[in-house]
């Protein structure tokens, strides 16, 4: 419901109009806002999900929260960033409801050098890396996404997931080890030598 005392944040004229319309419950404004951000936000939800169906659930729940809480946006940071935080928080809440169902896999003691995510992009591409991240065990997937893609510190991740900082660091290290192996295997398969041996 539109609050008479509520004033829109100063963004740009078109975005301000959309926000005002959404606060008033205007369906046209809601549809326009949805069209503007749906593609980017679904990509965020997909990265935190095990499959497309889970991503769609998170995405729709997240957008409902956007419309329910849009009057609380105070122009602290970008509007897109505000929507993204809602999507990520929705994914975190869904994860926490089911995290007790997930078991961790054992990582052996084989030494694997830690890799820089940025360096990997040039070797396998962002899309392939994201697919590998989605194949991680859920806890590792969540910690890796929050650390690498959202830029959270281990203390913040620990608070978000109700774990210790040490657990967050350990999960990130294990996630990187698994990803390094997946990347190495992918690169071996893609080499001409490997192809010729088939």
How would you characterize the overall build of this protein?
This protein has 198 residues and is mostly helical. Helices cover 70% and strands 0% of the residues. The N terminus and C terminus are likely disordered.
Describe the structure concisely.
With 198 residues, this protein is mainly α.
What is this structure's SSE topology?
Blueprint: H1 13-23, H2 27-47, H3 52-69, H4 79-98, H5 117-124, H6 126-134, H7 138-149, H8 154-161, H9 165-190, H10 192-197
Comma- or semicolon-separated keywords:
198 residues, disordered C terminus, mainly alpha, elongated
Described by the principal axes of the CA atoms, the overall outline is elongated
Major sheet size, sense and barrel closure: none
What is the percentage of strand-forming residues?
A: under 5%
Q: Element order, helices and strands?
A: HHHHHHHHHH
Overall mean pLDDT score? 81
Rg, Å, rounded: 20 Å
Cα(first) to Cα(last) distance is 64 Å
Number of distinct helices: 10
Count of DSSP strands: 0
Residue ranges: pLDDT <50 for 5 or more in a row?
1-10, 101-114, 192-198
Structural class: mainly alpha
Query: What is the helical fraction, as a range of percent?
Result: over 70%
